[in-house]
């Protein structure tokens, strides 16, 4: 592996690998317009934000990662009931927002970088709309009677979808506190908009299916993807449990169904056929899938299995690659690669790292992604590779 110019901090802080300190910034060192295929094999961990760098409590897990639309800001929601905002170009922590009264998870930027929504973890199951410049609430979205498991923002409008353990999916207009539509489904724990914003998908693990709905006609789904029927030949274990992520590729061609099992399912968004089973040689991360975490039966509090993940896998913005965290290393699959007779696809690239990556998000504008478990890590292409 080619070396990355960085400083090494010999303090371990409970992590096996050395800590990383950034020595270059995004804006002056890489071309954000470079094709992903030119840099995908050259990503290196470049900046590690240790808990003690930001706050006193070191025993914290990062619950979610999100980027704003311009790709300039990175935001995490964390188990110590804080929201952390980072400057991507400078590799710098910018702001800490507290939500001690209500708790916080699933923090998402709206289309305005100065406002966010997030789900509560205490008192009730409301979704909160917050202005980040002064940490003031704009609106509460109330109605769910169970923990929220997914929030997804419409790609072009101020609308969003929420899923909950109360077995409902609700559609919201950010300008009013009342939901605009509701679907009653069993275990609808994940949802995703397609890039056009005309349809959205809901994943129901207990039924082993993904339902596709027209945004303007919710009487019945326009199509139903039977994951059990389509995928049983590649992985029987993950067909109806352990679903961690649902995402459309930006080109609209594929749907990614992430699991915490032995691989992820890559599905054709038009025919609903299985395109590939993205096998993870070392298996999945230890985090719980949405809806199966700390308030689920049989889960021991304080263990990694008690903490929900918002997904350790995602598409690159061009739709060409899928990245996934694991208990070590970042796995990369080229969706254009030839699969085996069993439709299995092994990682095309393995980006070495000793830390578990339980949450992963790719920047929408730059060749840059972030991973996290207890610490947030920034990844950049090595310009010297």
TrEMBL record:
One of its GO terms (biological process) is RNA metabolic process. Its main location: nucleus. It holds the Pfam family WD40. InterPro entries: Swd2/WDR82 (IPR037867), WD40/YVTN_repeat-like_dom_sf (IPR015943), WD40_repeat_dom_sf (IPR036322), WD40_rpt (IPR001680). Signal peptide: none annotated. WD repeats lie at residues 141-176. PROSITE patterns: WD_REPEATS_2, WD_REPEATS_REGION. GO terms for cellular component: Set1C/COMPASS complex. The keyword Ribonucleoprotein does not apply. Keywords: Nucleus, Repeat, WD repeat. GO terms for molecular function: chromatin binding. It is found in: Nucleus. Belongs to the WD repeat SWD2 family. This is WD40-repeat-containing domain protein.
